[in-house]
């Protein structure tokens, strides 16, 4: 699951280019909402925590593209972890671009449940595009449409690589949701430490609002994960994300089984996510005095 996923999901991120004009806050022009720190309360802590980890309040767009037989469960895996998994696949895929595009297209369509995708590029080049047309990974997965550009270099065996991807507009839909995604990401691995940096904008086409994951950074070494960034909610404002205790995970794509993430908002308010083998517990400090209370 780690590598073909990256191809697509890297397109989820937005560094201020990709056909979108950035505001003075460095946010995409599609973001219309609060740019102030969020006051974390018992009523909004879960929404902010879910959004910060997944990029949107309800589910993650990254579920759209994955190989069949993806491993692990998706209860706690973050958006950035999913993207990292895809980036690893894309790192290996850069080597495929040296082969005829026609062959890539015919073999690529064997992945997934319905629809298709094609990869095109110049043999010998380290850049290419991948286009999805009504693509579903599984019978219950959302449908993806859009074109993504990627470039990169990969070392022997794909264990070391440097990769970047972008999209100006990609859409995924299911029975009750429709999202448009734009952005870029960069990922590097030296064989022992993998670092992903990303910015993404996701517009809910039904609710007509956009959330932003800004300066998201994921670093994975051995079994240790760290995660930082800033999440913008159009109604409540932004929270900053920090790793209070490094997360423990069997792989970059696995659910964390230990560790703690801290979200910080206005006037010292905070929320913290403490991971365990079955998911994570959520607590909030709504007074800014260091006293955390479990969020039901």
Automatic annotation (TrEMBL):
> In its keyword annotation, does this UniProt entry include Signal?
yes
- Where does the source fall among the domains of life? Bacteria
Instruction: Write out the entry's keywords from A to Z.
Output: Signal
> Which PROSITE patterns would you find in this protein's record?
PROKAR_LIPOPROTEIN
Report the leader peptide range. Answer: 1-22
Name it. Lipoprotein
Identify the species of origin: Geomesophilobacter sediminis
């Amino acid at each position: 699951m780690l590598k073909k996923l990256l191809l697509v999901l890297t397109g989820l991120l937005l560094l201020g280019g990709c056909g979108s004009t950035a505001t003075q806050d460095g946010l995409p022009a599609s973001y219309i909402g609060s740019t102030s720190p969020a006051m974390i309360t018992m009523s909004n802590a879960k929404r902010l925590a879910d959004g910060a980890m997944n990029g949107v309040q309800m589910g993650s767009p990254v579920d759209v593209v994955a190989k069949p037989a993806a491993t692990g469960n998706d209860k706690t895996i973050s958006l950035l972890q999913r993207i990292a998994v895809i980036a690893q696949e894309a790192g290996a895929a850069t080597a495929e671009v040296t082969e005829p595009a026609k062959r890539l297209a015919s073999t690529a369509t064997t992945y997934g449940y319905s629809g298709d995708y094609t990869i095109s590029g110049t043999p010998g080049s380290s850049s290419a595009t991948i286009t999805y047309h009504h693509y579903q990974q599984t019978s219950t997965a959302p449908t993806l449409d859009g074109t993504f550009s990627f470039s990169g270099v990969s070392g022997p065996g794909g264990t070391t690589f440097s990769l970047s991807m972008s999209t100006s507009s990609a859409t995924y839909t299911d029975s009750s949701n429709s999202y448009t995604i734009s952005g870029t990401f960069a990922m590097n691995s030296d064989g022992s430490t993998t670092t992903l940096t990303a910015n993404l904008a996701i517009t809910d086409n039904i609710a007509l609002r956009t959330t932003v994951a800004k300066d998201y950074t994921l670093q994975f070494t051995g079994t240790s994960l760290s995660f930082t960034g800033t999440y913008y909610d159009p109604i409540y404002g932004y929270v900053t994300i920090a790793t209070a205790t490094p997360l423990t995970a069997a792989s970059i794509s696995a659910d964390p089984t230990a560790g703690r993430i801290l979200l910080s908002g206005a006037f010292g308010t905070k929320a913290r996510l403490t991971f365990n083998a079955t998911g994570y517990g959520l607590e909030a400090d709504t007074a800014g005095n260091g006293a955390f209370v479990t969020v039901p």
